[in-house]
């Protein structure tokens, strides 16, 4: 883009950010926004959009972080034209969020009271990302201090010794309650739960970690007890004011086939998970007063199992009644094409698809653990959300809400990255935090993806179009390209001579929102 058009766009900016700005701190890989108990940058609310203007939010490698500007619409287009078609409506938005792991709670706990509140507001408050989904592990995961279950008494088929340990009261329950409270006036927070492993005594390998299956016959006591354990968990959480929307029968069930798997797991394939839902989990939830409205999300594993896993689950009408959708993780997305999601949707159009876990820094080659300020990781989040949603995924769930400087704690030493990293009395908002905010802030449950018609865009430019719950029009653009700055004019189908022109520099994310005519 030329100097003249840069100047033009600069002149069209008629309002500037008036909320607290990012206090940027530079690390080797880029900048983060530093926050403490008294100071943190806000995302300026969308507010009212003046006639003849659009609101633009910009995040880029140069340091803009959800920077809100107002842009005048013009009768002429410039650069590439992207046309939003609000009359071609695709899937409904389920929501966006992250996981209340023990490690998240441990990092929150390390902050002074006002620091904790400040961090919680970053995700669930009106000037934060406004998450509408939370994932809650049932007992321990690799992001816990130890491996623990809720009933470690061998042979306790009645679950007489089922109890929540102190970890739930210290690291999960108070923060989930606070998140529910922060979100109660802006659409609410929907929670889903997932177990990593049953108690060791229920597993063939006798340990929570490592591959193994439930002991005994598929209709035997281990299977029925394991289903009862879910209901006990929901009863217990409900008694602390925490209701659930959904549950996955098992986190990443395919990992349970590896006897040396490093952390907690349990093996199911599509057939055995389907049988467990049909004979045990589905009926146990339905017959419980606290859990009978909880829906099941099948699979909760990488997309290479699709569409086959969904075909097996939805073939049996009884199972299909219990299972509302399929959960997908993003690990190995580079290897398996995103079209597997569209194929799954086409074969099972009444079922939703939800991204149930993702994180960066899980592979040694990427640099294991946090990379502070690394913009590339914001791009991978935005790219995953855009391509998933363009293939019928209704929402996207991040992994740990907050980790420490090493990417833990994790008893399994599985250090990874997170959008918020806690460092002593401060915390840092990574570029990923803003990458997610471009979507979570505006696409609330009940919004819909709609069609966008595109010219041949430069390689590495990605677009998502939606209509927000209040009818306003939404487009997010991502430019992952290493060199090329792009100018894009956005218009709405059927409305001629009204364009919003934005510059999309290399390594940037831009959201454009305008009123319904
Ligand atoms: C919090 O951060 C702000 C902005 O960097 C700084 O001015 C203030 O002194 C910090 N407060 C504490 C208690 O460290
Ligand atoms: C469930 O609710 C019904 C109707 O209120 C009641 O009769 C029944 O005892 C309850 N069951 C349990 C396990 O609480």
From TrEMBL:
Domain Glycosyl hydrolase family 30 TIM-barrel: 94-443
SUPFAM superfamilies noted in UniProt: (Trans)glycosidases (SSF51445), Glycosyl hydrolase domain (SSF51011)
Domain Glycosyl hydrolase family 30 beta sandwich, residue spans: 446-512
InterPro entries: GH (IPR017853), GH30_C (IPR033452), Glyco_hydro_30 (IPR001139), Glyco_hydro_30_TIM-barrel (IPR033453)
Signal peptide residue numbers: 1-18
GO cellular component, one term: vacuolar membrane
Reaction equations catalysed: a beta-D-glucosylceramide + H2O = an N-acyl-sphingoid base + D-glucose; a beta-D-glucosyl-(1<->1')-N-acylsphing-4-enine + H2O = an N-acylsphing-4-enine + D-glucose; an N-acyl-1-beta-D-glucosyl-15-methylhexadecasphing-4-enine + H2O = an N-acyl-15-methylhexadecasphing-4-enine + D-glucose
Membrane-spanning ranges: none
Pfam families: Glyco_hydro_30, Glyco_hydro_30C
Single biological process term from Gene Ontology: regulation of protein metabolic process
Name this protein carries in UniProt: Glucosylceramidase
Family: Belongs to the glycosyl hydrolase 30 family.
EC nos: 3.2.1.45
UniProt keyword terms in alphabetical order: Glycosidase, Hydrolase, Lipid metabolism, Signal, Sphingolipid metabolism
Pathway assignment: Sphingolipid metabolism; Lipid metabolism; sphingolipid metabolism
Record bears the keyword Phosphoprotein: no
Molecular function as annotated in GO: glucosylceramidase activity; hexosyltransferase activity; signaling receptor binding
């Amino acid at each position: 883009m030329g100097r003249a058009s840069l100047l033009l766009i600069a002149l069209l900016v008629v309002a500037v950010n008036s909320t607290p700005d990012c206090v940027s701190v530079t690390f080797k890989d880029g900048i983060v926004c530093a926050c403490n108990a008294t100071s943190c940058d806000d995302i300026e609310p969308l507010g009212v959009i003046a006639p003849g203007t659009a609101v633009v939010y910009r995040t880029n490698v140069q340091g803009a972080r959800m920077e809100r500007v107002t842009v005048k619409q013009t009768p002429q287009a410039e650069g590439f034209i992207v046309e939003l078609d609000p009359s071609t409506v695709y899937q409904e938005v389920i929501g966006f969020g992250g996981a209340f792991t023990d490690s998240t709670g441990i990092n929150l706990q390390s902050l002074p009271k006002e620091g904790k509140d400040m961090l919680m507001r970053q995700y669930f408050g009106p000037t934060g990302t406004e998450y509408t989904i939370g994932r809650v592990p049932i007992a321990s995961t690799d992001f816990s201090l130890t491996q623990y279950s809720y009933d470690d008494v061998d042979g306790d088929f009645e679950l007489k010794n089922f109890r929540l340990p102190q970890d739930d009261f210290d690291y999960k329950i108070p923060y989930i309650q606070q998140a529910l409270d922060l979100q109660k006036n802006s659409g609410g927070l929907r929670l889903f739960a997932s177990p990593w492993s049953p108690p060791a005594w229920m597993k063939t390998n006798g340990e929570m970690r490592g591959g193994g299956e439930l002991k005994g016959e598929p209709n035997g006591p281990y299977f029925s007890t394991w289903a009862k354990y879910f209901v006990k968990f929901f009863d217990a959480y409900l008694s602390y004011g925490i209701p659930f929307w959904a549950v996955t029968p098992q986190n990443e069930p395919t990992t349970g086939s590896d006897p040396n798997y490093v952390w907690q797991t349990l093996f199911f394939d599509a057939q055995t998970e389907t049988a467990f839902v049909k004979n045990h989990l589905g009926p146990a939830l339905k017959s419980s007063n606290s859990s009978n409205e909880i829906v099941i999300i099948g699979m909760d594993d990488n997309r290479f199992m699709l569409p086959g896993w969904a075909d097996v689950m939805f073939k049996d009408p009884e199972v299909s009644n219990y299972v509302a959708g399929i959960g997908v993780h993003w690990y190995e997305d580079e290897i398996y094409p995103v079209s597997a999601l569209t194929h799954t949707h086409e074969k099972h159009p009444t079922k939703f698809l939800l991204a149930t876990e993702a994180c960066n820094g899980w592979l040694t080659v990427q640099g294991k653990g946090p990379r502070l300020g690394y913009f590339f990781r914001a791009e991978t989040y935005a790219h995953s959300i855009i391509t998933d949603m363009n293939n019928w995924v209704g929402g996207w769930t991040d992994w740990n809400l907050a980790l420490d400087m090493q990417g833990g704690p994790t008893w399994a030493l599985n250090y990874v990255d997170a959008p918020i990293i806690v460092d002593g009395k401060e915390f840092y908002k990574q570029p990923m935090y803003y990458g997610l905010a471009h979507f979570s802030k505006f696409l609330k449950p009940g919004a819909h993806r709609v069609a966008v018609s595109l010219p041949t865009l430069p390689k590495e430019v990605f677009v998502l179009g939606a209509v927000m719950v209040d009818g306003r029009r939404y487009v997010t653009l991502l430019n992952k390209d290493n060199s090329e700055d792009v100018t894009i004019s956005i218009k709405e189908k059927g409305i001629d001579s009204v364009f919003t022109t934005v510059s999309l520099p290399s390594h940037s994310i831009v959201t454009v929102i305008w009123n319904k005519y």
